[in-house]
Specification:
Length: 506
């Protein structure tokens, strides 16, 4: 085989020397076996072995069968990845292919591991499954199997249902290990935690499978929400949208459709002779015929996440420029979803704010890593984060979760969630920060404002409303430590007193 492929004498001499001189030893603990040689197969761990395997198996040919898959005029009935193979066809075709491959393996001297070989049915499952044989040995039927790291399932949950569950379990284990590090090293700052998340946790959800089933995607989203809540020190009832608005992380449902789009973009730039390019051409033909396929699945998910449809889906999915536009549209849809969620959920500290940046630039984007998360004192950072995101225990939020009489399904009515210090108004974020007349809060508020005006005298008198003043101050990174300390002190003062609950509610 090597000679027919053009290999000559020096290569033969090198291989003869390599295989004649190579020996192995086995070590178990501190004990080492005597060296021994191997005389069967190719060497394990040798850099030339993959190339030699490609040579020895390069003459494998599986004859086409009428039941085989045809992609863009090309029959595709098997795949090989080193010594891991897969073949498929109809009920008669697969029998013919197994017989042909069994004869080929016997002729080449291959030892086929039949116990590790599995058979699966996709589509309509017959009442009685036929027995398939490879080299005279029966093949076991299964409803899921792993090939090249991906687990395929023939059950009703979807082709990749088992893989979703497995990836979610692995991602959660990694998240738990990361979070447990805080017991040994102390606080894990959000910026560093998000670096770990992107590289070690989100990577378990980075394949290009299309999320047609919301239940499968929910398994991965649950891990993302769990980790971000723990990183920000928020409770399990916190709003989901704020996890993304504060960290700048794009929600998983959007990133997972962006990856297939980028994968598709790369496919269009490959040569036409590539196998994957022929598969893409077949999917385009299905799309144009109005039949379901991979491209129609992509469109379905794009519409589900709120991407504005282009004038011509066919052109948008078949050009680099069109796909780039769709990727950008996914980002816009993600920003719009987060903004809408914040606007609908009574989060006054987040609505209308801007994020300060380098060179005095400010951004009003919904998905931005917020600079206040860089606050160095953990207790101050957590207090500010909880106040900004409505995840605090002030009366306006905590009174929602009191035991509820039948007549008050939403907890204490909002206008009765009065300030525990002054009793003049609802105990919400702005009241405590800017309006409460309790002497202890007024004194601390005065100290904070004097410190702000000392650093930035021009800010005095610029804001027309308390919330406008707050948003303005939060744009300056130098002022955030002052603000965070102020919020921490205020919450300590307020929460030292019991929450106000109307007598008639108890």
């Amino acid at each position: 085989m090597l000679y027919r492929k053009g290999a000559g004498g020096p290569i033969f001499d090198w291989l003869r020397m390599l295989y004649g001189s190579m020996s192995y030893v086995v070590r178990l603990g501190s004990q080492v076996s005597t060296p021994f040689a191997t005389t069967i197969g190719i060497l394990t761990g040798d850099t030339s072995s993959p190339t030699l395997w490609n040579f020895v198996s390069s003459d494998l040919y599986i004859s086409p069968h009428p039941e085989d898959t045809v992609m863009a005029g090309v029959v595709i009935n098997h795949l090989l990845h080193a010594d891991d193979g897969a073949m498929w066809s109809g009920p008669n075709g697969i029998v013919a292919h197994l017989d042909e491959y069994g004869s080929y393996a016997s002729r080449k001297g291959f030892m086929v591991n039949v116990p590790k070989t599995k058979a699966m049915v996709f589509g309509v499952v017959p009442e009685v499954l036929p027995t398939l044989y490879l080299q005279g040995k029966p093949i076991e039927w299964v409803d899921e199997h792993k090939y090249l790291g991906s687990t395929f399932s023939s059950r009703k949950g979807g082709l990749f249902a088992t893989m979703y569950a497995a990836k979610a379990v692995t991602a959660r284990k990694t998240a738990n290990v990361t979070l447990r590090l805080q017991k040994h090293f102390g606080d894990l700052p959000p910026a560093q935690a998000l670096m770990i998340y992107k590289s070690r946790i989100a990577s378990h959800a980075s394949e290009v499978a299309i999320d047609l089933r919301a239940a499968n995607l929910a398994l991965l989203e649950a891990v993302e929400v769990y980790f971000l809540r723990r990183v920000l020190h928020l409770h399990d009832r916190s709003r989901i949208a704020i996890l993304y608005s504060e960290t700048g992380i794009v929600p998983l449902r959007f990133t997972r459709i962006s990856r297939p789009l980028r994968f598709l973009r790369g496919l269009w730039q490959l040569p036409d002779a590539r196998l994957v390019t022929r598969c893409l051409s077949a999917y385009v033909a299905l799309w144009r015929a109005g039949k379901p396929g991979w491209l129609s699945d992509v469109v379905h998910v794009l519409l589900r996440v709120g991407v504005v449809p282009p004038l011509d889906w066919g052109e948008a999915l078949s050009s680099v420029a069109g796909i780039d536009s769709l990727v950008a549209g996914v980002r816009v849809a993600a920003e719009r979803w987060v903004s809408d969620q914040i606007g609908q959920q009574r989060l006054p500290m987040l609505v209308g704010r801007r994020q300060g940046g380098k060179g005095g630039k400010v951004s009003s984007h919904a998905l931005v890593f917020r600079s206040y998360l860089l606050t160095r004192i953990p207790a101050h950072r957590v207090a500010l984060t909880r106040l900004m995101t409505g995840s605090h225990t002030l009366g306006v939020e905590a009174a929602k979760w009191l035991p509820r009489p039948v007549a008050f399904a939403q907890g204490v009515p909002r206008h009765w969630r009065l300030c525990r210090l002054c009793g003049d108004d609802t105990e919400d974020e702005l009241h405590v920060l800017m309006w409460c007349t309790a002497p202890s809060l007024v004194e601390r508020r005065t100290l904070m404002m004097l410190a702000v005006w000392k650093l930035y005298p021009a800010l005095k008198g610029r804001a027309k409303t308390p919330i406008e003043w707050w948003h303005m101050v939060m744009e300056y990174d130098e002022l955030i430590p002052l603000v965070a300390a102020y919020v921490y002190d205020l919450l300590q003062i307020v929460l030292d007193e019991p929450m106000y609950v109307p007598d008639w509610y108890q």
